[in-house]
Amino acid sequence: MANFFEDNKALSFQLNNPLMDEIIKLKERDFRDYGNIDYAPKDVEDAKDSYNKVLSLIGEISGDVLDVNAASVDEQGVRIEDNAIIYADGTKENHKVLTDAGVYGLSIPRKYAGLNFPYVPYVMAAELVARGDCGFANIWGLQDCAETIYEFGDEQQKSTYLPLVNAGYTFSMDLTEPDAGSDLQSVRLKATFDEKENCWRLNGVKRFITNGDADIKLVLARSEEGTTDGRGLSYFIHDRKDGGVTIRRTEKKLGIHGSPTGELVFTNAKAYLVGERKLGLIKYTMSLMNGARLGVAAQSVGLSEAAYREALQYAKEREQFGKPIINFFQVKELLSIMRAKTDATRALLYETARAVDMYKIYEDIAKERKLEADERQKLKAYSRLADILTPLVKLFASEYANQNTYDCIQVYGGSGFMKDYPCERFYRDARILTIYEGTSQLQVVAAIRGVISGGYLAKIKELEATEVDAKFSSMRQILVSLRKDYEKCVEKINAFGSTSEAHEFNSRRLVEIAGYLIMAHLLIIDANRDEMFMASAQLFTKHAQEKINERRAFIENFDVEDLEAYRTLSD
Predict the structure, then answer these.
(1) How far is it between the farthest Cα atoms of the chain?
(2) Cα 185–142–30 angle (5° rounding)?
(3) What is the mean pLDDT of the chain?
(4) Higher pLDDT, 62 or 497
(5) Which residue blocks in 413-500 are alpha helix, DSSP H?
(6) Which of 461, 358, 342 is nearest to 408 (CA)?
(7) What local confidence, expressed as pLDDT, does residue 508 receive?
(8) pLDDT digits over 176-186, tens only?
(9) Hey, how many other C-beta atoms are within 10 angstroms of the C-beta on 155?
(10) What is the CA radius of gyration of the chain?
(11) Is 437 known to be catalytic?
């Protein structure tokens, strides 16, 4: 019997972060549902007890069902029959067990058959599911679409579609098209209003759609005749039972074989407008994408955890030259940095999730009453923080998942290249994480705002000022020195102009320096609360120092004339 929640004390640690008490009180509106709904908590401790019980249940399902089924799901994949995608047998079992357990819809309000959990335990559940099966995490994670309906839909749409989440209905966000991948302003799928039926009709093609045969779809479509940019796009709900969508094919992919990716043809498909016209991309899709990016970060951390544990167990059991290979320092180094990277990205993941919780809860409260001045200030501050941390955690967590699964194979040696062991599947599954929901390059484009605005610098200084024990002083001194180097690097590149090629060329280095500093500080703060993070804090601080010095040296020696060489080799 395996339980992926109970065997990982880092998760309980994050649930008990000092900010969680405030998040819970705000989310529960001082526990107003207690006494009216039988499963509503009476206080903070009661709420945390509920989170622990539900996460323990998901952890058990992830360990005993999802993880057990993952290999067969990978082998069996999906197929199309009668315009429906048929899941692998293991995927069907995964979905049924989680549905029967009543653990879909964690973050949805109770009035819509949800559990009203904050975002932190919801993200934690996504991490647990991904550790069991990275591909299935997409089927699980796209219940995020319900958040968009809750935030922007009307009451009829909320009462119609939100209860379906806990009933096991699947969701998808249908955004990309053959000629509109990352550039969603180029979406061409057409939406026209049907006055007779009082609905909209969708016509066109969508491609690379995860959960392509989902029961409920959120579709980005061009509603304004004659437009060619994002201002002509609106957002729509399509219920698959209404027909009008043909599944042309499913993609044959490198990894995540249990997650269906479809090409869809919409032919007069009935749909209903979400929110206001013209805000489909500008407001609604951007909100959904931020949630999806945090979901991919959780997926990445879950896969990193799986890869580390797989490599660790093998290293303890595999003997060479008369002793287990874990006794060789070359192997110890690989395993240790895998652990430190996983702990670092997990710390950043939940720091981001707490910021999302705070601003989203205040936005929700603002629908009920006028916010006080200090509440408005908190909403703005946490919203800005979430905006700069979300692309950062998606960037680092997905890149580290690729590195950790790579190193898992390395620990296995030749055996890791064979399909007899899960590490080669981990490696294939990880590759998509730096690509979908915005490539790593696009995350840098989003994250560079945190450099230009000074948001990252402010966060770094805030973390520097957090009181910790004297035993962390040497690590802190290293990071303070590196922060000063970061400021010099920003100053040099800003001198070229924020819209210059030089700035664009060095943006990833600046973003990564900020990320290393933030994660190292977060680990020190975590280690100050619990000794179990001490080794990771020490190793990651050294790792950050090495990586930052490398990027600093490049920036210090950068000259605009260097750009010509890059143009020459890329033309």
Answers:
(1) 80
(2) 110
(3) 95
(4) 62
(5) 423-430, 440-452, 455-464, 473-494
(6) 342
(7) 97
(8) 999 877 788 88
(9) 7
(10) 24
(11) yes
Tokens for 354, please give them: 């707490």
The pLDDT assigned to 182 comes to: 78
- Catalytic residue from among 75, 437, 464, 487: 437
- Among 397, 398, 292, residue whose Cα is nearest residue 346: 397
Structure tokens at 137: 């995490």
H-helix or E-strand spanning residue 248: strand 245-250
> Could you give the CA distance from residue 413 to residue 348 in angstroms, rounded to a whole number?
31
Using the predicted structure, report yes or no on whether residue 81 has a pLDDT greater than 80: yes
* pLDDT band at residue 400 using 50, 70 and 90 as cut-offs: very high
What is the sign, positive or negative, of the torsion defined by CA atoms of 79, 84, 88, 89? Answer: negative
Q: Confidence class of residue 498 from pLDDT cuts 50, 70 and 90?
A: confident
- Place 565 in a pLDDT band, splitting at 50, 70 and 90: confident
> Which residue has 């930052």 as its token pair?
548
Could you tell me the pLDDT band of residue 330, with boundaries at 50, 70 and 90?
Answer: very high
pTM, full prediction: 0.96
CB of 236 closer than 8 Å to CB of 274: yes
Q: Pairing mode, if any, of strands 190-194 and 79-81?
A: unpaired
d(CA 481, CA 214): 51
Amino acid at 514: A
Count of residues making up the chain: 571
Beta bridge partners of 203: 190
Please give the torsion angle defined by the CA atoms of residues 188, 193, 194 and 200, in that order, rounded to the nearest 10 degrees. Answer: 60
**Which is higher by pLDDT, 498 or 542?**
542
Q: In whole angstroms, give the CA distance from residue 423 to residue 416.
A: 6
Contact 25, 81 (CB under 8 A): no
| Buried-state track 395-432, b at ≥16 Cβ within 10 A, e below 16 | bbbbbbbbbbbbbbbebbeeebeeeebbbbbbbbbbbb
For residues 454-476, b (16+ Cβ closer than 10 Å) or e, as one string? Answer: ebbbebbeebeeeebeeebeebb
